[in-house]
Amino acid sequence: MKRTISKSERPYRLLLCVMISLLVIMLAGCSTSSDSDTNTRGFTDFATIEEEYLTTIEFELAGGLYAA
Q1: Are residues 30 and 22 in contact, defined by beta-carbon separation less than 8 angstroms?
Q2: How far apart are CA 31 and CA 9, in angstroms?
Q3: How far apart are CA 40 and CA 8, in angstroms?
Q4: Using H for helix, E for strand and C for coil, what is the string for the chain?
Q5: Nearest by Cα to 45 from 32, 58, 57
Q6: Chain-centre distance of CA 1, in angstroms?
Q7: pTM, rounded to two decimals
Q8: What are the backbone angles phi and psi of residue 4, rounded to the nearest 5°?
Q9: Tens of pLDDT along the chain (68 residues)?
Q10: Exposure letters 25-59 (e unless 16+ CB within 10 A, then b)
Q11: Could you give the angle at the alpha carbon of 14 between the alpha carbons of 7 and 31, nearest 5°?
Q12: Which residues contact 32 (CB under 8 A, 6 or more apart)?
């Protein structure tokens, strides 16, 4: 005998399906492939952050935008 979903279970089942779908989409969006270039949006490693920070510090020490 086939089990039917009661009216009180329908919103919860729909919510569960939506949450699982959003989780799958989120995980697919965060995945990085090896053939993508480094300028694409995604996770940044600490080496890149450190390099950008040091470049910024050197720029500011050299006078930056406010050099006379």
Answers
A1: no
A2: 33
A3: 44
A4: CCCCCCCCCHHHHHHHHHHHHHHHHHHHHHCCCCCCCCCCCCCCCHHHHHHHHHHHHHHHHCCHHHCC
A5: 32
A6: 45
A7: 0.38
A8: -100, 155
A9: 677 777 788 889 999 999 999 998 888 876 655 555 555 556 667 888 888 888 888 877 777 665 54
A10: eeeeeeeeeeeeeeeeeeeeeeeeeeeeeeeeeee
A11: 170
A12: 42, 43
Q: Give the span between the Cα atoms of 51 and 44, in whole angstroms.
A: 11
Task: Report the C-alpha gap between 55 and 61 in whole angstroms.
Answer: 10
Q: Which amino acid, one-letter code, is at 43?
A: F
